[in-house]
Amino acid sequence: xxxxxxxxxxxxxxxxxxxxxxxLVLITGTLPLFSQAEPVQPGDYSALPRQxxxxxxxxxLGLSRAQAPVLRPEQQQIILTYEPAxxxxxxxxxxxxxxxxxxxRQVAVAFGHEQYRVLHAMDRSxxxxxxxxxxxxxxxxxxxxTLEYRFVVDGVWINDKNNPHQRRLLSxxxxxxxxxxxxxxxPKETPVVSQTxxxxxxxxxxxxxxxxxxxxxxxxTFNQWDPYLHRLKEIQPGVFRITLxxxxxxxxxxxxxxxxxxxxxxxxSMGADEEGIALSKLHIxx
Length: 286
Description:
By secondary structure, the protein is mainly β. The protein has two domains: 4-179, Sandwich (Immunoglobulin-like); 192-284, Sandwich (Immunoglobulin-like), CATH 2.60.40.10. It has two helices and 24 strands. A hairpin with a 6-residue loop joins β1 and β2 (18-24). It is elongated, with a radius of gyration of 25 Å. The chain starts with a strand and ends with a strand. This is AMP-activated protein kinase glycogen-binding domain-containing protein.
């Protein structure tokens, strides 16, 4: 039997990752107790969403039983829950019998798009149900169509029993799945800067909405304000796009259509030229 050794990281969103060596046994799907890692404690905010809302607080307070994954497309969130088996141990005090819950010490979730190398600590509700708010970006929707994950309970890898969507590997291991919504054709903010590009360049995608059949051009400091050098292509009725390879730095630009200059309505970052005319601003980090 061959074993595969992988470095596994316990990851807290607001803490420094602690790297531990762990043995992943592909045949049994188990992992030894990661007792040397940073323990998962109730009240660890790493499992909470980026911005807590009243709805989130009420959800956590009312979480008394584990359930199927909760998909929130508007918040771009998926809530995963895990409930340990209802086990107890009997403790006798003279003529009295007291029952004490025996819950897991550490519960985490690992995701397929991270190659299951990162264990995200789950938090616990007042009723003892573990939960994790998975926040995703539009960029993830363009990379994967299904979120795949497994729970790690005291070192043992298991699937989500409350999730009806499962994928079984040839080894017999079950992977829990959550179908993701389609990526929006136009993101909430533009331009979209990709980390990939030739040499030290970045791929920057500009998107603009205009009446179908319009001529839309992009003018900026990256093309010496030439109003006709970069024409956007209509990829769908009323949606225009162009992708440029740009070096890290700060740029200013606007769109030209129908003889008018229009700043990017989806870019909140703005600047102005010497005459005080508003311009859209783009910063590409190193």
